[in-house]
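Each letter names a residue; the fold follows as tokens. Both lines appear below:
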Amino acid sequence: MAFSVPVFELKQVSQQFGQFSALRNISLQIYPGERVALVGSSGAGKSTLLRLLNGSVRSTRGEVWAMGRNLSQLNSKRLRQIQQQIGTIYQQLNLVDNLRVIHNVNAGHLGRWSFFKALASLMVPLEVETAVKALSQVGIAEKLYERTDRLSGGQQQRVAIARVLVQNPLVILADEPIASLDPELSREIMDLLQNLAEQADRTLVVSLHDVDFARSHCDRMIGLRQGQILFDAAPHQVSPDLIADLYRLESH
């Protein structure tokens, strides 16, 4: 590997939620510019792993490092500084439906804006050109002042991506970004994420149920089964039998 310093590193990480063991003894490194797909059944630990990477959950055991820093040792201010470099596209999108698109896109600034600037922007939108540029990159610039709840599911997904672009992070994490989309829209969104990562040499970590998209749009696949890593390999090294094992064993 050409890169000496990983953007993320997990060292023997386990995550418990009450009696439920979401992740067990996970160790991995993710390097700058990689496009990594997390694959596995629902409940395998994909979403939990993403939440550990963005610092929204702290590990029960082990160490989670991001940008060369041990997240468990950072105070709130330092943690927020790291999190500003990590853009997350959530499965539920976390958009405010009754707001106009520009306000949801501008939420990408909230890590940098003061409370009063954010409040003022709800009345008179700020940094409109930045929002237009981000929406142009995702192909819906004309929706700038549309109410978000009037958009299609695919358009709302693009708003969520534009919000991350405004944040301008080093890393994009995407939790099942195509779970509710039809195959054609799914390909468009995956193409978009791949291109946005490649253009700015961003790291992309995306959880997917669709193994075909993981193969076609990522250069590394991590298979999670019952909170453990079953495989971590380049797509061409992941055989159909290994995928069958991943999902068959997960069901037990």
User: Anything to note?
Assistant: The radius of gyration is 18 Å.
